């Protein structure tokens, strides 16, 4: 039992210096860094610190007075959002939308806020945020459906006429 405690203490002390995530490919790091300017300021700094400056989550956490798990979660969520096609859709299409729709879309899909947090942040009602979110999703689906080939109609239906 005592040996396990010693191993755990030792591992805690050296975990920040042995960070296997630093072995990621240069191409992946460059791709991630090329889109960081689209993230909110806080997440941009975290992602840049890890992928450009090569800092571990533990080092970033110490600098920002955060928990390393929180740093990893924030970075993971930011990168996941950046890789979502809806994120790119909002970035490229939102300049053509109304001010409110643009703010709602950027808050939801770029900043990763929830519907309720977006409503509070923009001082809107929740149903207004839902309305704009639905409109953005409709545009996204219409755009993605127009670029994919349409499927042949289903011919397995039965046509019956009803006599009145």
Question: What can you see in these coordinates?
Answer:
- With 164 residues, the chain is an all-alpha fold.
- The protein has 2 domains: 25-82; 85-147, Arc Repressor Mutant, subunit A (Orthogonal Bundle).
- The protein has helices spanning 2-14, 26-34, 41-51, 57-64, 68-82, 85-93, 99-110, 115-122, 126-147.
- Helix 3 crosses helix 5 (68-82).
- The longest helix is centred in the C-terminal third of the chain and has 22 residues, at 126-147.
- The radius of gyration is 23 Å and the shape is globular.
Name a few traits of the molecule.
164 residues, mainly alpha, Arc Repressor Mutant, subunit A, 2 domains, 9 helices, 65% helix, 0% strand, disordered N terminus, disordered C terminus
Summed up, what is this model?
This protein is mainly α. 65% of the residues lie in helices and 0% in strands.
């Amino acid at each position: 039992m005592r040996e396990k405690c010693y191993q755990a203490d030792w591992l805690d002390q050296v975990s920040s210096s042995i960070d296997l995530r630093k072995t990621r490919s240069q191409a992946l790091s460059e791709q991630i860094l090329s889109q960081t300017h689209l993230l909110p300021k806080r997440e941009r700094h975290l992602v840049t610190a890890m992928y450009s400056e090569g800092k571990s989550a533990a080092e970033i956490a110490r600098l920002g007075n955060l928990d390393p798990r929180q740093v990893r979660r924030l970075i993971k969520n930011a990168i996941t959002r950046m890789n979502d096609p809806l994120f790119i859709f909002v970035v490229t299409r939102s300049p053509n939308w109304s001010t409110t729709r643009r703010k709602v879309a950027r808050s939801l899909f770029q900043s990763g806020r929830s519907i309720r947090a977006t409503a509070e942040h923009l001082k809107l009602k929740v149903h207004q945020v839902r309305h704009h979110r639905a409109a953005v999703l409709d545009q996204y689906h219409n755009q993605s459906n127009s670029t994919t080939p349409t499927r042949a109609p289903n011919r397995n239906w039965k046509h019956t006429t009803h006599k009145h």
